[in-house]
Amino acid sequence: MPDYSALEVVLGYSFRDRALLEHALRHSSWCNEQPNTEPAAAAKADNQRLEFLGDAVLSLTVSQRLMERFPEAREGDLSVARTQVVSEEGLSTVANQAGLGAWLLLGKGEDKSGGRTKPSILADAFEAIVAAVYLDGGFDAARGFVDRLLAERIANAEIRNFYDFKTRLQETAQARLKSTPTYRVVQELGPDHEKQFVVAVTIADDEWGRAVGRSKKEAEQNAAAAAHFRLEAIKPKR
Predict the structure, then answer these.
(1) What's the predicted TM-score (pTM) here?
(2) pLDDT-derived band at 228, boundaries 50, 70, 90
(3) With pLDDT > 90 as the criterion, what percentage of the chain qualifies?
(4) What is the pLDDT of residues 126-178, one digit of tens each?
């Protein structure tokens, strides 16, 4: 196992079990290239299960911090602010600043194709590391880790008029993609008295966001917010 001391310094956390950190850095492309000689499949498992857990820990921690920062904000506004913090663009930026790409375990093909700088891979690895910290040191350790690395993004998250996002997305989509967003309900959840709606927003035949709301209107706004921040993160072509 490599010496992860330098990475631990950057992350601000020292692992008792460094195998968890190494597990969080394993991309599926690397695992697929390993010889099938290990006695247990878990010994070469990729980081996707850790990513799943890290997403939940990250969402809980960031939600708590935003509630503390915006004590009067509505649920929908808090959801929009959280999207700003934990978006793929946001997490990959933080991971890139920490130099995480250099430590990733990637397959040869993925490495050659620029996998160490791909936002999706970096964001997934960041979430996996959150889970690794949680499993190694508990929730307080994971919360402290998130606080340290995402403090600036949490501090810069904005509570803006929630019902502006459909308009803002339409303006941005027209300017950058020459297309108008469309919304559709893709799922309904829960009993009639507590029903929730899942809405997807599509721009130029591609889905750009999907979100849940207690009404169709709220779900559309949540989806528009997710799509808006994703679209804003893409640099316009000159």
Answers:
(1) 0.69
(2) confident
(3) 54
(4) 999 999 999 999 999 999 999 999 999 898 887 765 447 888 888 888 888 89
Domains and CATH numbers, the chain: 5-156 (1.10.1520.10), 162-232 (3.30.160.20)
Whole-angstrom Cα distance, residue 66 to residue 99? 26
If you write DSSP's letter for every residue of 178-189 in order, what string do you get?
A: S---EEEEEEEE
Catalytic residue among 46, 51, 55, 110: 55
Sign of CA dihedral 83, 88, 94, 95: positive
Q: What number of other Cβ atoms are within 10 A of residue 75's Cβ? A: 13
- For residue 45, give Cα distances in angstroms to 20, 30, 38, 108, 216: 11, 10, 11, 17, 39
Query: What is the distance between the alpha carbons of residues 227 and 211, in angstroms, rounded to a whole number?
Result: 10
- Residue 127 annotated to the active site: yes
Distance CA 65, CA 168 (A): 26
Active-site residue identified among 110, 127, 136, 218: 127
Q: How far apart are CA 185 and CA 197, in angstroms?
A: 7
- Gap between the terminal Cα atoms of the chain: 45
pLDDT of residue 236: 52
